[in-house]
Specification:
Elements: H1 9-19, H2 22-35, E1 42-50, E2 53-60, H3 63-66, E3 75-77, E4 93-95, H4 96-116, E5 121-128, H5 130-145, E6 152-159, H6 167-170, E7 178-183, E8 215-219, E9 224-227, H7 230-243, H8 253-262, H9 270-275, H10 279-290, H11 295-300, H12 305-347, H13 352-358, H14 362-387, H15 390-421, H16 427-430, H17 434-446, H18 452-461, H19 472-487, H20 493-515, H21 529-543, H22 551-557
Parallel strand pairs: 2-5, 5-6, 6-7, 7-8
Antiparallel strand pairs: 1-2, 3-4, 8-9
Helix pairs in contact: 4-5, 10-12, 12-14, 13-15, 14-15, 15-17, 15-19, 19-20, 19-21
Length: 566
């Protein structure tokens, strides 16, 4: 009878990673950089492999790990990484040795960052040993600043890199951007752990908070496997660090990668299937045995793998149930809040944009909480999409595209109203949130230009629509400011020309929205900001010697807007 093959996602992922050229390319550039290495503690170089792939490599001096200084294993806080803080982890600490190398480089790396903002395609940040720690910190700074082009996807690959942070870093939303390659003969990844081979003078008072983050590709003579469970990774690193003899020797990762690619990875171990009935337990045991961690060795180091597997299963089950309950509650809450806004819009005689801007009743004030709740929800949703792999993110965007678009059209005008209500200017460049930009970008990537039949259908429904461009009222407010500047005695010739050009463009924009039935009829309410603009503009063009007859001016003067939407 044929044995049923056991599914092993960790080994399959490891094989997939090894089969790609990314790891080989990354380590090749590390070796190239090492050949020209100077006495500097850390060096880096950018390699442009093609128009679609760029590699930035970091290497550290061997002295950094051969002779670690007392206290380098401690965890410190740095203002450079305050962006990692969350409500659950209000402080995030980084390994002092990594900070000592990265902080002096920070200003120099700004030039490299500027160069990377212009590239497209795959971006690999890589490093070996403490150079890998610097590579990880640099990648985090890139991800936080959202500096790269939308089509430039950073990915960090480290080789034999020590742990660099505590629980707060492990909880980072960017875990999926990091892959750490570790040999079972390399003690450096566990260098700063309490059970590691640190010098006797080193203080361990602050080392117990270390926590792995990202995915780990663990390698042995038998094969390799990927893991992302931080507790399991931490324990395995401690075992490796305590068992490897001969000091902190340099491990040849190039040879390790060549051997792994040449050999066929074991497909299954019959004894594993006999000991464990469920695939989850069997799969984890198989991965551990593949990289040289059998039950006997684990027990020698007081690691009860059976208990750990049960804990992992319980945590996974609990997380799934918690997420389902949380998602259901959040979904009900946003439906309720959107229903409140829709009712508010229906009851606002002058238009809900201007009602909210003027804050003339208690009802207007209550809407503020709905706006805050919805914005927080959708910021989180967009952040989730950004954290997902491309394929999953695309599926997610498609599923939520309609709801996200309705939210943007309903809520962003309220943000604009609050902004200009405070007397501020230039919302688009100074205030617009990234999550609105991404929701609009994803919508525009998916939507097709309307056909004649679709335009006819929109014409029949225009009376009840939301204005499609969520920035419409920002353009209106800027047009009002341009009119006021033109009528001002302090307006210079240059300002007058710029304001006039902006108003002509605004006319064309509004007429396009009207022709496409993309503007809500409420923009023509008697007390709306748009009609305020028209009053100012009509008065100006009636007295202006270079006035012109545009389609919008004719549309407004002929009062055709009264019929719009009927």
């Amino acid at each position: 009878m044929n044995q049923v093959p056991l599914f092993s996602s960790a080994r399959e992922l490891a094989n997939l990673v090894l089969a790609s050229n990314l790891i080989d390319c990354a380590f090749t550039k590390i070796l190239e950089l090492k050949r020209g290495q100077t006495a500097l503690p850390v060096q880096y170089r950018l390699y442009q492999l093609s128009s679609k792939c760029t590699i930035v490599a970091f290497v550290s001096s061997p002295d950094c790990t051969q002779y670690p200084l007392p206290g380098q294993g401690d965890l410190d806080r740095s203002p450079l990484f305050d962006f990692l803080r969350t409500e659950e982890y209000p402080s995030v600490s980084i390994n002092r040795a990594a900070l000592d190398l990265f902080t002096p480089l920070h200003d120099h790396l700004s030039g490299l960052t500027d160069e990377l903002t212009r590239i497209e395609g795959q971006l690999i940040i890589t490093g070996h040993s403490l150079g890998g720690s610097v590579a990880s910190l640099f990648t985090l700074r890139l991800l936080d600043g959202n500096l790269l082009k939308p089509k430039c996807h950073p990915f960090c690959i480290t080789f034999g890199s020590p742990l660099i942070g505590d629980f707060g870093l492990q909880d980072s939303k960017w875990n999926s951007f990091f892959l750490h390659v570790v040999s079972n003969q390399d003690p450096v990844p566990g260098l700063f752990l309490p059970s590691g081979r640190s010098p006797p003078t080193s203080s361990h008072s602050q080392t117990t908070g270390y926590k792995p983050f990202g995915t780990y590709l663990l390698c042995s003579e038998l094969g390799c496997a990927c893991f992302d469970n931080p507790d399991l990774i931490l324990r395995l690193l401690k075992v490796i660090s305590s068992e490897v003899a001969g000091g902190l020797q340099d491990v040849d990762y190039g040879e390790i990668l060549r051997n792994l690619k040449e050999r066929a990875i074991c497909k299954g171990l019959p004894q594993v299937g006999e000991r464990f009935a469920d695939p989850f337990s069997a799969g984890i045991i198989m991965e551990l045995e593949t990289i040289g961690f059998n039950q006997t060795k684990l027990l020698q180091h007081n690691i009860d793998i059976d208990a750990m597997i049960r804990t992992m299963e319980e945590e996974t089950r609990s997380l799934i149930q918690k997420n389902k309950a949380s998602d259901a509650k959040k979904l009900n809450d946003i439906k309720r809040d959107m229903a409140h806004l829709e009712w508010y819009k229906k009851k606002s005689e002058m238009g809900y944009y201007d009602c909210f801007k003027n804050q003339g009743s208690k009802r207007d004030i209550h809407v503020e909480q709905f706006r805050v709740n919805l914005t927080k929800y959708w910021k989180d949703m967009v952040a989730q999409v950004q954290r997902k792999p491309q394929k999953e993110g695309a599926t997610f965007r498609t599923r939520w595209l309609y709801a996200g678009t309705v939210y943007r059209r309903m809520v962003e005008p309220l943000d604009i109203a609050a902004f200009y209500g405070e007397g501020k200017t230039d919302y688009i460049n100074k205030k617009r949130s990234l999550h609105y930009q991404l929701l609009q970008q994803w919508y525009e990537e998916d939507v097709k230009p309307p056909s004649r039949d679709k335009l006819d259908s929109k014409k029949q429904k225009v009376s009840g629509i939301l204005t499609e461009d969520s920035l419409f009222w920002a353009y209106v407010e800027e047009a009002i400011l341009s009119c006021e500047l033109l009528k001002s005695q302090n307006c210079t010739l240059e300002q007058g020309k710029s304001s006039w050009d902006n108003l002509v463009k605004f006319e064309e924009y509004v007429m396009e929205q009207i022709n496409n039935y993309a503007a809500s009829p409420e923009i023509f309410s008697r007390e709306s900001s748009f009609m305020k603009w028209w009053g100012l503009y009509e008065g100006y063009i009636d007295t202006c010697s270079n006035s012109h007859g545009s389609p919008l001016i004719n549309f407004m003067k002929d009062r055709r807007y009264i019929q719009y939407g009927r």
